Amino acid sequence: MEATSTVARTTKPALSFFDLQAQFATIRHEILLAVESVLESQQFILGQQVEVFEKEAAAYVESPFAVGCASGTDALYLALCTQELGPNDEVITTPFTFVATAGSIARTGAKPVFVDIDPETFNINPDLIEQAITDKTRAIIPVHLFGLSAAMHPISKIALKHSLAVIEDAAQAIGATYYGQKVGSIGDFGCFSFFPSKNLGCAGDGGMVTARDRDMADRLTLLRAHGTRQKYHSEIIGMNSRLDALQAAILRVKIRYLDAWTRARREHAELYARLFEHYNLSDVITVPKTPSSCGHVFNQYVIRSRHRDALRKYMQEQGVPTAVYYPEPLHLQPAFSHLGYEQGSMPHSERACADSLALPIYPELPADDQERVVRTIADFYKSHVQTNRGNGNHE
Ligand SMILES: *Cc1c(COP(=O)(O)O)cnc(C)c1O
Description:
The chain has 395 residues and is an alpha/beta fold. 36% of the residues lie in helices and 14% in strands. It has helices at 2-5, 20-41, 48-60, 72-81, 100-107, 152-161, 214-223, 245-254, 258-278, 308-317, 347-355, 367-383; strands at residues 65-69, 90-93, 111-114, 137-141, 165-169, 177-178, 181-182, 189-193, 207-211, 228-230, 233-234, 285-286, 294-295, 301-305, 356-359.
């Protein structure tokens, strides 16, 4: 969207950061049929489409239970609600994530406690978790950022030792694996988002929580619909957070393509890595590395770069859109200022906010576009920062 507005100094057409039209074109007929069948049934709230999708999605993420809900944000909130948290409780998470992760903790009344990331993976550093645990700690929310699993074995071990719930924020990582296990099936809960820009996106907002335990799944089902099993009889205080039947029908079509789309994303990531090598950019660019234990699904392809803001501006002028996920770590944002964190307290997250840059990646991304993205980056470093190159000074 930013790409089209500021293509001032180039005659080349702007390329897309992300292109949902390209994907829709490949499945248009099936999607329209799915939507039509829901409209013909006039069954919009829960019902068969949602139930079948929940089964298919549970099978896909290899989790025994899945409960559809209204968004990824609600998925996190619902999972946290099962733990009956309040002002005397603390939940550990990363400050380098989308705001919903910590916002959901705060909404339960509990206190978010931030633990810095491992700069190699952008995910919570398990070695720093234990020192953040107090007698108030109740849960850990690791985030599988950009589609790469967090270090779940050490996290699970710590959680077991201290009797903490593990709630995986898998919003960006459906299909990602950790030692062969699908994310969302490793902790007690897995939280997924079907926001259109996620790897499995619906036509609006949607989400899902997976659970390992039948009683917990039952509780989630109650919580998402006013605590009712039987109409107008509430067993517990709940909310209205359902997955629409229309969205479930669309997701049932799209989930069958997800593995093929993930393969395409991985191929694009490999091509980027080869192109960066070809252009000899390793002293100014760090490409994402996938630990051998992990199957990355590349919801985003995020590099680390010198002179990030100048590079981004130059690329924009050349019609090459990029994005920054995330420009500001959560512990320094006004919404969490009451927690009292200071600048410098989470150095790796703060640095990642300053030097990370997301490049276009989506299944239908043309190879020519990727070549142009990397060539533009090479041009920037050749023409703009020759003198600074290799001085070891990150901007
Ligand atoms: C997208 C996202 C969410 C929230 O999902 P919504 O469906 O937009 O509410 C939560 N956590 C992370 C890491 C996300 O990327």
